[in-house]
Specification:
Six copies of one chain form a homohexamer.
Chain A: H1 19-32, H2 37-42, H3 46-60, H4 68-81, H5 85-99, H6 104-111, H7 119-134, H8 140-147, H9 153-176
Chain lengths: ~190, ~190, ~190, ~190, ~190, ~190
Amino acid sequence: MSTGAISRYPVPELADLPEDIRAKMLEVQEKAGFIPNVFLTLAHRPEEFRAFFAYHDALMLRESGLTKAEREMIVVATSSANDCLYCVVAHGAILRIYAKNPYVADQVAVNHREAQISARQKAMLDFALKVATRSAEIVEADFAALRAHGFSDEDIWDIGAITAFFALSNRMAGLIAMRPNDEFYLLGRVPKK
Amino acid sequence: MSTGAISRYPVPELADLPEDIRAKMLEVQEKAGFIPNVFLTLAHRPEEFRAFFAYHDALMLRESGLTKAEREMIVVATSSANDCLYCVVAHGAILRIYAKNPYVADQVAVNHREAQISARQKAMLDFALKVATRSAEIVEADFAALRAHGFSDEDIWDIGAITAFFALSNRMAGLIAMRPNDEFYLLGRVPKK
Amino acid sequence: MSTGAISRYPVPELADLPEDIRAKMLEVQEKAGFIPNVFLTLAHRPEEFRAFFAYHDALMLRESGLTKAEREMIVVATSSANDCLYCVVAHGAILRIYAKNPYVADQVAVNHREAQISARQKAMLDFALKVATRSAEIVEADFAALRAHGFSDEDIWDIGAITAFFALSNRMAGLIAMRPNDEFYLLGRVPKK
Amino acid sequence: MSTGAISRYPVPELADLPEDIRAKMLEVQEKAGFIPNVFLTLAHRPEEFRAFFAYHDALMLRESGLTKAEREMIVVATSSANDCLYCVVAHGAILRIYAKNPYVADQVAVNHREAQISARQKAMLDFALKVATRSAEIVEADFAALRAHGFSDEDIWDIGAITAFFALSNRMAGLIAMRPNDEFYLLGRVPKK
Amino acid sequence: MSTGAISRYPVPELADLPEDIRAKMLEVQEKAGFIPNVFLTLAHRPEEFRAFFAYHDALMLRESGLTKAEREMIVVATSSANDCLYCVVAHGAILRIYAKNPYVADQVAVNHREAQISARQKAMLDFALKVATRSAEIVEADFAALRAHGFSDEDIWDIGAITAFFALSNRMAGLIAMRPNDEFYLLGRVPKK
Amino acid sequence: MSTGAISRYPVPELADLPEDIRAKMLEVQEKAGFIPNVFLTLAHRPEEFRAFFAYHDALMLRESGLTKAEREMIVVATSSANDCLYCVVAHGAILRIYAKNPYVADQVAVNHREAQISARQKAMLDFALKVATRSAEIVEADFAALRAHGFSDEDIWDIGAITAFFALSNRMAGLIAMRPNDEFYLLGRVPKK
């Protein structure tokens, strides 16, 4: 496994991939201008790839009381608690774009308490971080704290489930030493031309 | 949300479920004699349900250098590190059945170092517990330690990916306070009649 | 020190033991049908053995505002926090018998917050776990919380002292790798014939 | 429970105590010039008192490959890890006296790695601190490390058992907020007249 | 203390500052194009301000076996371990500039093990992180590990002392909720025009 | 680097030191009767020495709402949390002298909750320990808790800044294995003749 690789595991050639997976990659490439390494590296196991992205899309694309930027805040804050390089860098980019805010991703990654976000969003991240690090200690009082900020029970499921999904994702990235694409570091930091 | 419930969230009636999900439940009921609560409680969100079980089956049913009992050992040990009641109790039962051993699940749940399992299996659980709790610290030396016990790189992916999947599963169970079915507590402890 | 042993240290023959210790063993064998390994393994040091069981009996057999089942809950919950295989398995069995409940021991061992026990019992275990893991931080407010649930100061001593005694016991078991008797795993799980 | 008290619990009058306990107190008073508060405060429960001191004496007075000063080092180092005010102050005094060294107790309490003690004694304290804080992780390699320093298996039992006993003692002191006698702070710091 | 402020404490006007401090600010403004908030916020206490920057300059501007980029790596890695928003963002910018590398700061902040830096630099950061989080456990073996990578004892002092200084700095930033200037987020990410 | 040394690094001769540093040492020797090792060992780097003591004096000698004894309490409590032998022993002595109390230093070092100090002082140490160990989590509520005890915002800066400075100091002491002078152990324990 060479230094410089984007994964500790073999990365398949696009040509060798099942049709549905190649199509998904070309679609994201069309949209983003490049193929994020999470697609390339997880394609090593097509069946797991399909379940991974089905789960991801079920959570991140659904109608929700959370905005897309808020969902990405959850990803960035909890991935940072797990020291996951890929997820902090890649989803930091997506967060900057959705929030149209070049500062918020670094703030949420390092210390959400000092981020320039709403009190409601800080409560959301407090809950997410508890699910990420001590999920067995979630009690009714944690739900009550979120309801006081106007979150519905379905919103709370979203917060918890996104955190849970990225608990998986962070561990896969750590396992294979998934490297973020260079493109992510700058995305959303400068006005789009 | 009443005490005594199997979830903090509403549990759908079988009759109200999409056909594919109901079919999956009836299939497991046919085989196990009851419907494990993970099916009933996660069916609250059909799309996430489908991704969850597709992922689960991709990892737990595939051909692998790990036996089915070894895969369940990983589930039990890492779920215990996360204090996940549902997963320890339910997968403890499955482990006892696959291993045909009424003691191993409790041993692995409480302290795998003192379990009556092989040195190879202890090394497997050491790695799984590191992925579960400190995945960002996984380095080449951790891979080398497993290879020395005869694990292939694909086996190591299995160990890490199963751990990652149950990191998700444990957090979902904590979020909704998923209750294990009473049946699990005794399964695999007494010889089948 | 062989694998498969019940202790890292030599285990004395019954015939070689001082009369009082042999008598105590025969008494427990008469009652339980087997000699729990804690008796056999600690008999390696007769004087410590006598003090250990004198202390144990002073706490576990005395009149108390705590039921015998509640005392065993404390043992199981705090021993699980210490990852003590012997104590979780052996006292889990005793708890199931005293509580006449085949589920409670596993629930309390894995996550007492989700156990089907009373709010009063959960407060008792919260306190016990604080004594087990951060006893220097016990303050008056912790006593007040228990008094609000009807515990007397003598009850609180019982909770703390049982926790303290098993802090010792768990460390002795870890030191010598004390193995639980196979009998304990099933005890209290099936109706007595 | 007043501030300034030596315990959160009632402290019995000498006159009201059972004869054997009063005799033990007078004996220690004769020898030390004062009655250490651990005697007075634990006498609230005579039966537990007897077991406590029987256990203490079995470990601390027996013939051993460890000197009395080394045994007190174990007490001071592990009690400090548990932030136990009574045990650090009282046994710090005893350690200074046995070691005829006015510095060693503070060194061992704050950071045994920088204490002016032998490499053998540092290894002893490394093991003791592991038993104190992570006893379930004790493995054969920990025994091997001590044997390499010349410790016998019986010596290792002593190290582990003293640590285990003070795990109990520290938690009792925390539970009742046991206050050290003022005399202990200075004992062993200045040459005896 | 208003939201949006750069400190929880009053920030002095430039006109009201002692001459030497105002001069230092104008100098940095001349060079950087803006006054970093650490200057403005710490000027609340002129005497501490002077000592702070004298210490900073003694460490960061001296001749050393460490490059300036390596010194900033230490700042970023240890400040991230302390979740210090100001230091991670501001020194991340300086690191990108010194290293002429737009990726390294985020890599070192999130997980230095996966950063594209040399093995020597990873060893340097391992040591710095140990000083940051467990300095009492530094032993000779830690020095030996660095010497094996070619670090001199003076280099090791630099690593440790920079870490120590930013342990102070991170805590001051947390105390006053020091906000990073917006300029830092983008610095060093795009080629200078 | 010899055992028995007061530092892992070379300690300069007084005669070889810059005049201002030698003068400072002679001044403290005149006052204390000996030169504390922190002066001798940090003189290895004169420029850092000057900044260190300028910072120290700015915090410890200034007019403040905190008494000098209270400032030393902060040093002792937080240095003990960092297991710093030099600072606990040396500043324990200074605390005993300022407080004219031979007991308070050991109490604050081991467990400030059980120290015989005021509730206001316990709140001060709670805050200091949070700055020492989790400064990124300091929020407005922490300030409010101190204001309720009558601390001004400037007093709170003092508490936080002293803690921050000794975070640096503790790490330097750990880095170089700074040994406390023998004189400190007894200072303030017996009435001055």
